[in-house]
Amino acid sequence: MRRLRALRGLFTCGGCWSRPPVREDGGRAAESVPAAVPTFAGRVASLSNRLQEEEGDRAEVYRELERVLQGDDGRVQSAVLARVIAAASRDMRAAQGVTEQVRTAASDVLVALARCHFDSVMCELQCRLRALGEISEDLVFVTLGKLASSYALRCVPFVGMTLFALRTMLSQVGSSRTLRAVCSVLEQWSKAVNSYLGAWEQCSFPRVGQAQLCSSVSPLFGHAVGSWLGCEEEEAKQAVLGAMAAMMGLLVREEEHRERVWEQLPWLLGQYQQVQDTFRVTKALSYFLAVLGEVQVPIPQDEVEAIGTAVHCQPEFALRTRWPFCARSWGVGARPRAWCPWICSEPWCAPQVARAALRFTKELLGCSVQSCSAWDLVAHVFATFSQASGRLAQGKLSEAEAQEAADLQALCLDILRSLDVSVRGMTKLLWPRLLQYVVPAQYTGTLVPLCRCLRELAESRGRAGGEDGEEEPNVAASRQRAKLPRPQALLARLLVVAAAPHAGGGCGVAALRLLRALSAEIHGALGMVWAVKIPFLLQCLEGQSESCLDSAEWEQLLLKFLRTSLETIESQAWTVGLSVELSQQTGSYPRPSREQAFLYKAVGVSLAACRHVPYVRREMKKYLLRMNYLEVSEREAMISVVAGSAESHFHLALEVLQEFGASMEERPVSGAFKRLKEYHQGKRAGRHAALVLAYGRIALRAPPEQLLARVESDVVGRILRHYRASCQVLGFSFSTKDVQLKLALIRSVAEVSRAVRVAGGSRGVELCRKRELLGTLLGFVQGEPRDRLASPVRREAFVAVGHLSKLKPSLSREENRDLLDQCVRSVMPLPALEPAEEEGATAADAGHVQGLHARTMGALGELLTALLEEDLSSDWLAEMLHVLEYWLTSAKEWERERALQACAQLLGAFEERFELTGETSFGPFGSMVGLLAPFTCDSLATSCQRAGACLGHLLRIQGRTLETGAEEDEVQPLCQRLSAPDAEALRQASSRLRKIVCKHIPPAQATDFLSAALDGMLSAQSACAQAAGEWLLTFLEACGGQLLTEVPEILSIIYVRMPTMQQDTLRHFLLEAVSLLALYHPGAVIDSLLQKQLPMDSDTEELWRVLGGKFFVDHVLRVLMEKLKNSGSDQPRSSSAKPEAEEEEAALEPLKMTRAISVVVSALQSPEAVLRLLPELLPVLLKQISATVGKEMPSSALITRGKLFLKGHASDDNPCRLSLETLEAVLRTCLDGKWLRLLRQQGAWAALEDPRAHHDGVCLLTGVLLRAGTVSLPLVLVLTRWLDAPSANLRVTAAAFFAELMKEPALQEWRCLQPIARALLEKLRDSSSTVRQMAARGLGNLVSGAPEKLRKHKGAVLEALRRGLEDAAAAEVVAESLLALAKVVTELKGKAVGSAFRDIARATKGFFDAEQASLRSAAFTLYGVLAASATSRWRSFFTEELGSTWATLVLHLRDPDPGASMACQGALRLCAPFLGLRRVRQGLAVTTRLSAAELLGDVCSQLAQESPEHQEMLYVAARRRFLGSCGELQAAALDVAGVLVEHAGLEWLTREEAMPLSATLRVLRSDGDPRVQQAAARLLRDTGLEQPPRRR
Fold first, then answer.
1. Which of 610, 683, 861, 1072 could form a disulfide with 678 if both were Cys (CB 3.0 to 4.6 A apart)?
2. pTM higher than 0.70 for the full model?
């Protein structure tokens, strides 16, 4: 059976045999057809009708019908079905008049129709088959073949009749065309029967026996054998070949027919020479073998070999089938060894052939064989792999050729992976010959399966006790010919492979496992040691990917493993042999390579393990002398050997190096030009650099005690000596630009520093040349170009400085800070990394530069850590961060990113070592958070991540001091989300991060945090500046309630930075911060703001305004009111004088509060707050106004910021104006604009500011407030208390307020009238004349507010006002009393006035000639009221009084004061009824529209006509006033005299009177008052009394 499967696989794998796809229902596999139309039956009927019409393209109709039938499973009506079958059958069989296309299309329609109507179609074809005459209708056969191909299982019931009909007409087959058609039927129907026999369970009809079916085919097979095998036409040969193979595949199922089949098999194989297309032969043979495999029929041995020979002889076979046979099917007895020599010796030039041979080899090796030929197959696999590897290594292959070679390698590896060494005989066959493929480097790619096979073989031998048993002679001979490696070679090779454990698909792991299995073969003493060490090494590799594995650390583990192994062996000869083998294997690898570098390290380990000192010295010298020092790899090789040897031979290594160095210097003078040439070629520098590096590496490997004894002179001294020597040529020193030399010195210093530090341990070792080395290293750093990172000098120098700084003598903090600053300045300003644009630049170049940058920043971080350890404290950490702060605020985003990376490294190091500091608190936490937090919103995503890392470190450090929960674990994920493209996710992450961090900032560090955050708002990066503001607000929101004591300092910090932050976006954060503080601590914020000096600058005003725009403005205003209310004292000052500065400061406090109220109120969005507080706010502001009226600004407020108190104000020394502006701002907020305009029109603000008119201003203000409805009972009650205040100003303000308030009838509703009136009566005796004046005015205003109460208490009111007329010291009080009496008398009338009428009238006329115009005006007003109120009781009295006063009244018609003149005119008209002069009385009554001057003229005219006596009386009265004390009245009297002269002439003036008048006028003409002079001159001129000038 295996033979059959093998022969079947010979073709099936190559695609030669393609079995027709058969559906489960026996039908042909559906092809891609168009979707059936919705009316399937209609379409079929329509197409059948078109076929009946005999018109159109019938082939197209048939093709359309075929598509319809294939696209739907519906059934056709019987009538339509009959028509279609008849038409198609007719056209298919038509001999003439029908094209070949139509016949073929008709045949295809029948096949498609059989899908749902198989029986009908088959019936038609059977009828036509039996009705054949001369076999001319070949398409009937073709159609039958198609049916069998498409519906194999459904054809089985018709096999008998179909084949019988064919048998009856075989003798009539003549033409090649018909033969091909008949052969097609035989082939497809035979295959259909074979398919049925393999799947008969799927059929619904009764089972047909295999014998019965074979008996139907057998006669046809016999006829074909006898008649058709000799045909000559090529197409006929191929048709007969297919039919024969199909019938043979069917007949072989029955035992009785097999002999006939085997007889025809040679004919089938012979068709390779007969048929041109041998692929058809292969396909037929493949089908036959496949059937044999299915039915498990063995092939005779001779036939098997014949098949193999026939196939092998076909050159195109391998090309077309790709050797796709399954050799396992041949089984025992198939003699596969016959194939082996042929496979192994065939020069397969075609890759396809080689691949096929390899596949065949894989199957052969899978057989249970015990032959040397199998080993040859294995060797062939390795040879093929080596050839393919060689071609790939040579290069110069096209892409297709390289792929072909790679495919061959993959096939070889697949064979080796599938090699089963547990098969019987394999151990003897392969062991130990497989070992010869371990060491050669060309077989490296096969090491994984090779190591597996060898390990399994070794383990199998171990279990079998090493018994190989009897071997075949040829196997033994083959083993003897194998070149087996030495144990040292195996160890060296497997260690090199293990050095890269993940390379080559994990060959390193396989090598280690093989080492453990070969321990006995390598050396008997290694078994127990390797049983422990190798599992440990394998365990180190578990879970480690290639990217995660530290290759340097892994190499050290392997070298340590090698050293342990050599110490275990304790054989110097074996060790020397290993050293030799390691040296030899270095030549097997390319130079440079990782394998070669590891081998040199292993050589050093082997020399260190060797105790034969002469050999070790010889080897070290050999490597020193033979190396090309211009090659870095060879320099490293020498260093690895010498340094490795120094582990056990330190003094010897130093001695050898010193000898070699001395030999370099001991050159004859004749070699000077050679030395110069070597310098320019770099040879000298290369040798010196190698020696410099060697000393450093030796120090690392040296025993500690030996190193410390010689480090200063023999290590550090030699290093500096070689470096200086490399910079000299012919005795001249040059500054070297050799990067490699610099790197050599830097690395050597770093290694020496590490070695000394480790050797010294905790005691610490002092390196005397530390500062010299540091200066050299920093010189290298500073000498690097600032515009690019061209070499790793900076990085290596940072590492070296870090190691060197840990040695004694220690540097001071200042020195360390300077050192750090120099290193940071050499890295941060480097340009940003950008894609290389220079010609020839590649992605690899860009990657190299990026890697160099990354490693340099990593080295800077290590340096930061080293310097931090020098003084492990939070103060030193803060200083180090201060060095980096300059770069954090850079406008260049790449500089910020680098600075943040350095900060993250530094904070990470401090976090790891925080427990060592012994600190219980982390003082710089707040300032560091404020500095770094804003960068979580930097424009660079990497900067955001690094800033987040910094916050994470800070939070974990702070968490240790506060012993809080581990919310810091949430910081890193939040920082990852800061680069999310979703704006909402970004906002949420930022908000959450701020809340977490801010909760950990202690209140004591709030100012540090805020200072740093505010500095961050000055960042050149707008996003960071915004973020700083958001952090500021978040902190105040979260922790503002705990910052009461810090409020003044916080506000001071904000205030100081306001001038530098004028952008609205940033200033908003400052204002919101103050607002948040005020929300928690309004009193503290207000106190702090009030500490700002006057004049209040714009920043302070803006802070006050922001308080006015918040919801807690009520509280702010209330606090300010309370402070303003309590700022002054109504009590007189104590006698103990305070310092002047304190007094001025105390005087400024109310002004600050007043101004603050003004600013806050001006910022209000709505008047509700002011309206609610107005009853309390008004008295406070009125009190402040009264306290400042007439005062000057304290001098301290005028010193700062020049003389400008408030921007835009005209005055700078009037504090009252400040209070008035505040009051105006308050009223502007809560009153309609018309009331404010009214106040301005009335001049209320100017009056309130004027100390002389302040009371009038208060009255005007009160009047408007009354009309606006803003005066309330609480306000009245507050001001009532002011009436008794010690401050005169307060009493004046209150008295003026109530004087105007007495007009308001609401006083009676408030039940305040009586106490206020009583208080006003009392205030008529107040010490302040203004208070008395306002008291009198208030009593007079009772007429408007409470006339009933006035009449009820008229006696007290009249008496009080009458006493006011006696107040000689205060004219204003008298005038106000006169006016008040005028109002009262008007209200009471003369009768109600009573006896006071007489006293009032007599007192009133005494003020007609008063100097004060107000007194005169008030007196005339009252006198007119008295005249109008004089009842019959007082008529005679008043007439008598008027007789002495009428002249005065007439005189005052020319009163200089317009008000007095008008009042006099009104009084004179009211007094007219009491005058005895009829014409004057009548003139006064009818001349109501005359002016005072006109009226005077009219009166004088009437007097001249009616009563000269009264005219003279008027003149006498005027003359008495010529020499008065008041210039205005004197001038008025003179004018009246002039009017008399004008209207009466001079007849009445006698000579006796004229002379004194002339004298008087001449005197007055020289008066000091110009008005008097002019009036006197006019009168002299009018009277003619002026003397003419003398004549000569």
1. 683
2. no
